[in-house]
């Protein structure tokens, strides 16, 4: 009996020591390692780190809308823990995402080093297996040589001359929403729209046309399936991940598997159709299927299953971000009528009698471009970027142990008065006529090898949709609009974007 008890005590003692070593001693040692280098932070809490404090700050911040007196000064609402902790611990501090150490960085030199470092010591963070299920083997979820191969092929598909071929598709998507709005307007001069919702459908239409060409209606159905999948995955992310749980045949898991299968089958069908008709490879799916020779002249190809994953990634990466960017441009111009008028005058001048811009006219939309750039500065859709140190590394004299996550505070850099001047939180597109003070001060699309592959498409579609809207309508905030920027996957208006539109020209 005594022997049995001793054995039990030994086993419990062994596991307890192991648990305390991983969950208490290692975080304590990492914290001390950074403290010795002058880097402080809110302090590790067993297992949860600072996540519960951070979640509480977000919940609190999202309870109150913002006043419109300083509408673009949004950090306190969309990045509340930075707002609270940076004044206490400084512009670089250590916090804990569960038991993962995260170094919050706002120094543009360090950020540039992390994003552009060619040695591969900073890479993707370990992602939740549920999220991995969604990204599959697409660019967002890949690392290493496999990522590099996909990236070479996809870069080729998003080249400027390819994007040029999508201009009329993008204009068609915009005309489609105008038709709907005109029905809604009837014979009224003014009408109110929750524009965020409608812009999301324009963006879905665009990504569907560019991805699937003439099969874009079927593409839209596929993306609706993905939207449902995203909803189920977001649900999973709100709960603690239990290893192996995703394999259990629960109702939600079965729904997830069915949706995944339906999506894969539908994209596979479109691949087969494309293969038969050999549509002039203008759409993304066709471009990804066509043979591509790399710099060494070697032919590289993606398997059908890889193309399917990439299509899913384009929707996830491209639809939400572009739609929210367009929404923030409209809200910013609804607040600032002077810039709205300037932009419209430019559009009239560049487009003349045409109802939509052509490729050559796009580069003449200088004011519209500056407005989009300024909106991306004030409302950077991803708010932050997170990378992980895959080996021990020194960054600006700070010694960073392997496994540390680097939380690059994009929005803090974009709003920093030291980099952008005292009026850093004011909407002033004219600042983009001046050369930038620091190359690392602005990176809404990321930088370095992982830079957004769809950025040319995003800028082109935003310019086309915005110039067409400016040409057709003037707009202002509705009295029902509540200014409440919120960060959930992307930066969006928490209660929608209610604007009042007035029809200008036919
Ligand atoms: C305003 C619109 C957009 C913004 C602000 C944006 C921003 C970003 C950012 C910040 C990254 C991450 C860079 C990193 O991890 O270092 C990224 C990656 C990516 N974006 Fe975009 N994006 C936009 C639109 C699009 C569109 C329209 C597409 C495609 C249809 C797209 C496809 C991707 C893909 C596939 C990646 C992963 C690249 C890789 O890992 O190699 N994005 N984007």
UniProtKB/TrEMBL annotation:
Question: In the UniProt record, does the keyword Oxidoreductase occur?
Answer: yes
Q: Which organism is it from?
A: Polygala tenuifolia
Q: What is its main location?
A: membrane
What's the protein here called? Answer: Cytochrome P450 oxidase CYP721A57
Q: Does the keyword Ribosomal protein apply?
A: no
Q: What family is this?
A: Belongs to the cytochrome P450 family.
Give the membrane topology. Answer: Single-pass membrane protein
Q: Which InterPro entries does the annotation name?
A: Cyt_P450 (IPR001128), Cyt_P450_CS (IPR017972), Cyt_P450_E_grp-I (IPR002401), Cyt_P450_sf (IPR036396), Cytochrome_P450_Monooxygen (IPR050665)
Keyword tags: Heme, Iron, Membrane, Metal-binding, Monooxygenase, Oxidoreductase, Transmembrane, Transmembrane helix
Instruction: Tell me its cofactors.
Output: heme
GO terms of molecular function: heme binding; iron ion binding; monooxygenase activity; oxidoreductase activity, acting on paired donors, with incorporation or reduction of molecular oxygen
- Which residues bind heme per the record? 452
Q: Name one Pfam family in it.
A: p450
* GO CC annotations, alphabetized: membrane
Q: Where in the cell is it found?
A: Membrane
């Amino acid at each position: 009996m005594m022997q049995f008890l001793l054995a039990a005590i030994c086993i419990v003692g062994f596991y307890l020591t192991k648990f305390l070593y991983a969950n208490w001693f290692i975080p304590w040692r990492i914290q001390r390692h950074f403290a010795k280098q002058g880097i402080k932070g809110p302090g590790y809490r067993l297992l949860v780190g600072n996540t519960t404090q951070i979640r509480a700050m977000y919940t609190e911040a999202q309870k109150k809308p913002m006043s419109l007196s300083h509408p673009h000064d949004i950090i306190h609402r969309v990045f509340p823990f930075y707002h609270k902790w940076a004044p206490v611990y400084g512009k670089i501090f250590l916090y804990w995402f569960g038991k993962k150490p995260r170094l919050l960085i706002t120094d543009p030199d360090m950020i540039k080093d992390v994003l552009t470092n060619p040695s591969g010591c900073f890479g993707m963070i370990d992602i939740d297996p549920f999220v991995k299920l969604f990204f599959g083997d697409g660019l967002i979820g890949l690392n290493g040589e496999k990522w590099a191969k996909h990236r070479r092929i996809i870069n080729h598909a998003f080249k400027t001359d390819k994007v040029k071929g999508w201009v009329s598709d993008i204009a068609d998507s915009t005309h489609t929403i105008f038709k709907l709005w005109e029905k809604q307007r009837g014979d009224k001069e003014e009408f109110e729209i929750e524009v965020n919702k409608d812009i999301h459908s324009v963006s879905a239409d665009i990504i569907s046309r560019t991805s699937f060409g003439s099969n874009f209606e079927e593409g839209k159905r596929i993306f609706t399936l993905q939207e449902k999948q995203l909803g189920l995955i977001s649900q999973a992310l709100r709960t603690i991940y239990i290893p192996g749980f995703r394999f259990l045949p629960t109702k939600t898991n079965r729904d997830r598997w069915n949706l995944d299968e339906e999506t894969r089958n539908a994209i596979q069908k479109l691949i087969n159709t494309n293969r038969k008709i050999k549509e002039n490879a203008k759409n993304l799916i066709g471009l990804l299927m066509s043979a591509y020779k790399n710099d060494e002249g070697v032919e590289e190809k993606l398997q059908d299953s890889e193309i399917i994953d990439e299509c899913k990634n384009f929707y996830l990466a491209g639809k939400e971000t572009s739609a929210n960017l367009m929404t923030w441009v409209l809200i910013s111009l609804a607040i600032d009528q002077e810039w709205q008028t300037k932009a419209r005058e430019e559009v009239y001048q560049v487009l003349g009698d045409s109802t939509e811009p052509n490729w050559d006219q796009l580069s003449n939309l200088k004011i519209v471009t500056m407005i989009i750039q300024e909106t991306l500065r004030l409302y950077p859709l991803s708010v932050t970027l997170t990378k992980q140190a895959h080996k021990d590394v020194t960054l600006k004299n700070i010694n960073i142990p392997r496994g540390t996550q680097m939380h690059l505070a994009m929005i803090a850099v974009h709003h920093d008065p030291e980099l952008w001047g005292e009026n850093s939180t004011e909407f002033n597109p004219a600042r983009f006529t001046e050369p930038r003070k620091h190359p690392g001060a602005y990176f809404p699309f990321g930088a370095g090898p992982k830079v957004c592959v769809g950025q040319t498409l995003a800028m082109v579609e935003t310019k086309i949709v915005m110039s067409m809207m400016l040409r057709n309508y003037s707009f202002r905030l509705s009295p029902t609009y509540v200014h409440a920027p919120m960060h959930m996957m992307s930066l969006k208006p928490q209660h929608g974007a209610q604007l009042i539109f007035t029809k200008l020209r036919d």
